[in-house]
Structures
1.
Amino acid sequence: MPGKHNDNDAARQTPMSMTLAEKIIARASGRERVRPGEIVTCEVDLAMMHDSSGPRRQIPKLAELGVDVWDAAKVVLITDHFVGERDELSIEIQSLTRDWAAKRNLGGYHEAQGICHVVLPERGHLAPGMFVVGGDSHSTTGGAFGCFMTGIGATDMAGVLATGSIWVRVPQTLRVRVDGVLGDGVAAKDVILAICHRIGINGANYMTAEYTGSGVAAMVMDERMVLANMAVELGAKCGIVAPDDVTCAWLAGVGVDVADAQTWQSDDDAPVAREIVVDAAELAPQVAAPHSPENSAPVNAHAGTPIDQAYIGACTGAKLDDLRMAARIVDGRRIAEGVRFFVAPASVRINEEAEREGVLDTLRAAGAAILPSACGACIGLGPARLGAGEVGISSSSRNFQGRMGDASSQTYLSSPYTVAATALAGHIADPRDYL
Amino acid sequence: MSESGRAWVYGDGINTDLLAPAAYLKGSMEELAAHCLQDLDPDFARSVKEGDVFVAGDNLGIGSSREQAPQALQMLGIRTVLAKSFGRIFYRNALNLGMPALVCADTDRIRSGDRLRVDATAGVVENLTSGETLACESLPPHLVEMVADGGLIPHLKKKLAGGR
Ligand code: SF4
């Protein structure tokens, strides 16, 4: 009876095969399983906010609802957007945020400790399998730790704070397989910029971008965070990397013991909507021209373009490993005459560690100015804001028109290696020439 | 029956930095709204009128999670946004604010200044200037009630009151 046999076969293959993101959504929504396209309501394990999206936006909404946070222990508040700004409005926002936190027993309040997406895992708030929302689009970064973490707007956040739950449409999955090992001077940033170019900005709209393959397995956590962080540049709802020994060791270092890493893996036969493969060994350093990350091309395409400023910063490109990359390139050299070189380590802890290792000394000796650990120039604030007509290269994630300064300024995006090489040359340069 | 409004038509990739420039995020919504889209069309914020319709191509509202992007449009009088596709957070934000965000494959057929009448529930756009009728994807059913209530906050308020 072939028909019956086939039925059994199908039943054996598909009963529970799910991707990692689907498993987390199923758990959070109290279901055995979920399928892409279904709309479910999930209980939130953690909600993260920063000073721009946080209390100043939430206080009036919660007041209108007549409720307070559903579970303060599951709320983490981190100030980063207006840190270092000394104008009256910024100071007002900081104190309002601080007062709100002081009145509640929050799961965490980290003031001026660095950029939220980096501080959140650094302070042990994330673990594989968690369902997390963040009041910032780059909240996808948390997926590097095997969480489902997505960015939401202020009213959605008010709904979460009031009820502890949120609706989601179960996303389809784009599987990005990185095969092989990246060449020297090539980084995760080059992988994600190449993908932005290949599938287009928003090319994975509403989807989960799951990163797998030997190239991802070989990456340190700081590099995996870049892939998850910029999943949002593909339009994805989340970017995710299944936990492995590298994840568990990193988390153990911040006091998080993971016992269930095996639970939080995609099934081999879980259906995905699309798979793209990146040949790591073939990949050249990438540079994204203004005004979109999808305008990426191998560095040669832009080599020689003069720049005014090189910036190592943001949640995307100023973690410890990023600073080490930059230091390796500039070690014993001087930046070009007439170029400004700014480095804003992504967190205070990273700053301390980079100081201890001598990485900051190397950068300073080359001519870098070290800026506070905050969003800064990534959103056009602080001393590294670009002026009219200026050209910058940055290790951050977005180069939309006007984002990093004046509407007439131009921003190129690249890896920290390429930013550093460009600072030395005074024009866009291939970092492999400086290794 | 919905009122008609004037169409403001823009292209692909209108991002949240254009709609809500970061330099004004700290200040009041009124000030921010006055700078909405200034780098692309300085005339927009000055001239848009209550009841107008914002029309774009692909990827409207990609970028940041800042809700001030759809909120600025709403504050300036925009009552509906139409696009071929949306950034996902912008889409949720618009609906959460009670502003219908409709996916319409044919926004190329609309010209700036056309008078449009939008029926969000039915998913139909009538172009009163050209006489054409365009179809949109209808809103997911669980969101129709939320948008009708005026957004997530009034909707939750109603639900919380009902639960007591
Ligand atoms: S550093 Fe830039 S991308 Fe990261 S959270 Fe801050 S503003 Fe957003």
Note: The pocket of iron/sulfur cluster is lined by residues A 80, 115, 117, 136, 138, 314-315, 375, 378-379, 396-397 (CB under 6 Å).
2.
Amino acid sequence: MKARKIVLTSGKGGVGKTTATVNIGAALAKRGHRVILVDTDIGLRNLDLVLGLEKRIVFDLVEVIEGRCQVRQALIKDKRFESLAILPAAQTRNKDAITEDQMAGLIDELATMADYVLIDCPAGIEGGFRNAIAGADEAIVVTTPEVSAIRDADRVIGKLAEKNIPMRLIVNRIRPEMVRTGDMLSIDDVCEILSIELLGIIPDDEEIIDTTNRGEPLVLGEGYRLRSIYEKIVRRLEGDLIPFTNLDAPGFFGRLIGALKAG
Amino acid sequence: MFPLREPYDVAQPPVSAAPVKLGRAIVVTSGKGGVGKTTTTANLGTALAKRGVSVALVDADVGLRNLDILLGLESRIRYHLLDVLEEKVELDDALVRDKHTPNLYLLAAAQSREKEEVDTESMRDLIEELRERFEYVLIDCPAGIEMGFKNAVVGAQEAIVVCTPEVSAVRDVDRVVGLLGNAFAPKLIINRVRPHLVHKGKMLSVEDVNSILRLPLLGVIADEPDVIVSTNKGEPLALRSDSQAAAAYHAIAARVAGEDVPAPMVEYKETFMDKLGSLLGGRR
Amino acid sequence: MTLNEVLTRLNRIFGRENSGATAKERLRLVLMSDHLSLAPDMIEQMKQDLVAVVSRYMEVDRDKIDVRFEHQDRVFAMLANVPIISVNRTPSPPMSRPRRRRRRKSTVQQDLQGTQSSSGTQPAAGTA
């Protein structure tokens, strides 16, 4: 079976691409798939840090492309999982160290070794973005329900559409209590503006900060509210039709007031 | 080719023969996206202008412009940065006066162009021209360290780096500061601090961040939902008088202007909800 | 009604617009502007189509046509300035045949007659 090559992108920085890449990848691996995560943010690598593997980097993506090592030497296996590995970015190079064709070739090679190749794209729409999407067959666009993020996501969607890359949307950091008071755009608003298929709705939750600080994917811990949401995202990726479930807003009063959708 | 191993080398502009005091050009950068560069540029610009000085804000994020929408000026943009650089219009025609604050002007980025279309030397000349007319020129830098970053930095003499207390952000700022080298005397703003998380040990503290970065600290700003509301409306937070973050921006503006005021800090105050939350049993 | 809907209505009644609604409207307009700036070919094609349609009714100065998009605070509009050289002569509408006006029995007169006979005065002479 041919691997799925999925790029996670957003336009705007800081909306949660890397966190989503790590947590979706880990959840896929937990379900038994062979997963490789690729950090294409050359010069500003962070995938390794968010997964807690930063101390084990020996070779990076640029060295693989330049032929200075084999792919397998550069891949870092996460020992907490059966089959999850990352290919780190180079830190002391810049994004024109590789071409789009070289990236596409590398992703194809990784696709022979895995079921899912998830490509973590840098912020922006410059060379790093173009390289990251060069190897992908599908895209997940990540946005938050904020004006700048949506505007940037719209631009990125335009660019992906030019390349005929099918895409789905994750809306991250939604705050149900602010949506209720009308101080934040709702999921319906966001979907209406961006008009692409929804893959996941992730509420703003402080537990994510702690897990990224410690380099621990949600799926490895117990009692994380966001864990089940990522598991549903993964099931939808696999092709199951999982409805977006009701979410109890975090906090004492939220439970009294009622539910808003998430999942 | 953009040199990465050496500090970024910026030649100092030639000393002007004209008896005009050039304004200060400050680039607001971070490396990591989403930490609050554009918000800081808009609010710091507003706060400075409110002190009576003339301020020009330059959006260098070509293709992904957002400074206009944060200021509520998105419907007033007729010409943009590339129109000026390509000499299609005069600088005066492209500068948009702010809705809310006199003395504050915006030079918007182009939305339908690419960052690679900006000529670096022309950008440097443009910033110089702006310095001749404004006391402060704040340049909003895009995320990353590619061409957009390079063009935002050229022409600036000073840098403000914005960081959030998260591992990736700190790492990226460290990288950017390394690239900037000594020429920019970078100063730090720590943004989106959540004191109750710091108190629980679930977020890096200001001391943690600064012990790694070791930069002069301009100030610390707490995470506030009001930032989202102000972006929704296109009214910078610094226009309000009832917000901690607004007060922090004004204090930072004073410090940037050279006033000896203490750097705004964020204190942890245990709220009723915190006490209730721990009483009801903390979740993991 | 959900709580959200209640709050939205209350806010509208008291004249405060939610920033979320403001954000949505602003985004809608700004994205239109962004999309248009990315589609110069489409605008060019639309201009040509516009000229073709208008030219069916009047002769226009094709070189001086100006199509502009105005993004005001709450409104996004297309403004087209089309200099007209001449308006085609169209055949006059067909003449209508003259018709004799018929006088109907006046209800006013009937009323007056009714009133006057009850009060005893004579009706004026010469009524039809």
Note: Confidence is low (pLDDT under 50) at residues 1-19 of chain B.
3.
Amino acid sequence: MVTEPLHRSALDALGDPNRRAIVEILSGGGRSVQQIADELPISRPAVSRHLRLLKEAGLVSDQADGNRRIYGLRDEGVEAIRAYFEQVWSQAAARFRIVAENTK
Amino acid sequence: MTDPLIVEFEVDSPPGHAFDVWTTRCATWWPPSHTVSGDPAAITFEPHAGGRIVERAPGGEEHDWGRVLDWEPPRRLRYLWHLFFDPSEATEVEVTFSEGSAGTVVRLEQRGWDRLGEAGPPRRAKTEQVWTLIGTRFADACG
């Protein structure tokens, strides 16, 4: 019923309370994995896993800082969410046309 | 300032019918993967300004998606839309149905993105509650 690419996008990312917490933390500025883990009741590997998903969703980006990586919100996530909706509406529009043109 | 999102397309049926399909048969065309339940029994627009936009899950639970602002069949519809977000972080959607060469030109504009930019920082209790409510079920439904 559902297709893979959309799940790996903003929806999946925002559907989880820990990822929402990470997005909130990052909205205060860039942080390392350890800094994020320090603020949450979850392990560092779990934080890394969530960050990977957020990155795939286009909500977060990272850059090297010495031997660690600093994660930050990408365009505050807004553009990514907008892009996500664009995808949803296009899909909705295609489905809408089929229904509207085949009903009276 | 983030530009409004505009989606425009044409359908081979009159505006009145397009308006009806949009508002009374939403569950037949809205992608089910982008709903709270993943398989809604109905998605309803209450047909007046101030009316709710509600998803009804197969089990009967209701999930609020937004509020109708302008109800002007068969040409225009405007609503607040907060599916996935706290109501205070709603975006605004305006849909117009106008006559085109092939039937109806449907033009959708979604705006108010900048309000979402402020959604991150404040850890508001209210936001937290709504997120928690939507959270796990939503993630399960979607993936």
Note: Strands of chain B lie at 5-11, 42-45, 52-56, 62-72, 76-81, 91-100, 103-111.
4.
Amino acid sequence: MKLIVNGAAYEAKRPESVTALLEEMGIGGRPVVVVLNDEVVPASSRSTCGLREGDCVDLFRLVGGG
Amino acid sequence: MTRESEEKGMDRQDKAQDEWVVGGHRFSSRLLMGTGKFQDAETMVGAIMASGAQIVTVALRRVGRIVQEDDMLGPLGELKGITLMPNTSGARNASEAIRAARLGRELCGSPFVKVEIHPNPHHLMPDPIETFEAARILAAEGFVVMPYMPADPVLAKRLEDVGCASLMPLGSAIGSGRGLATAEMLRLILRDARIPVIVDAGLRSPSEAAAALEMGCDAVLVNSAVAASGDPIAMAAAFAQAVGAGRNAHRAGLMPQGGGTALATSPLTAFLSVEGQ
């Protein structure tokens, strides 16, 4: 399934849920916030949140900063 | 007269233990720490622990497609008694800052946000108009808004009026190490502020942090001063001592400043003259 992940085209092999996508990308257990089509997907909803062709997924994490 | 004697939402217990209250949350440490520029996670964690900081800022970044970046912040989550405060650094305007704040809240699980909007990378000065706009909206959404701001007393009042939990005026440009260049403006802000004033940015030495607390600021935030020092863990401890000394001095009340002439502390040496001459 063709998605746009962090602004770039991405061919997802496991688009059945956000959780599956994160695992496919190797982000599985790491703390990230998921934004799907400009809406935050709460962590509790990731396993039930499905993806559709052309969806925009943005992933953010915490980094060091002042 | 110290600022404790002014009503700032502090009850008698707070005053006795010298805690300070921001956004309804109580803290004993008056040293806030940033997490940027550290060489490695171990040094960062060691410095935070040495500082005694209870509020620690973090930033947001998009996750790379290829996840190979070091997880600097993983160990941070294991520290007890730390409130993470995401900043909105990278935002160029209020809209981006608001978006970043909402992401930060989701990630950190805390209502604290440092509104940080500095569109010009040469001087990193905070945009007062975008900061005000973001602060106004985020405060209405229930965030504990801590705005990074120019040391402008008029802006300070405006930010207080729209519901900010504190004020974070800069000492000097981020990372510049120019210290309390804004001291006179900070004094003006301190006179009228009814919410905590936290000097943020530009500090280099613990003595500057002490000076900020002596003049009546409630806290300071440092990042480069610790992370870029020769020994960040030792420097963090030094800052903690300085903040404590400055705060104690402020509570004790500095001696009056003379008008230019000397005022002897010991009797003048008339006793050395031979009697009768």
Note: The interface with chain B takes residues 5-6, 8, 10, 25-27, 30-33, 35, 40, 42-43, 58-66 of chain A (CB under 8 Å).
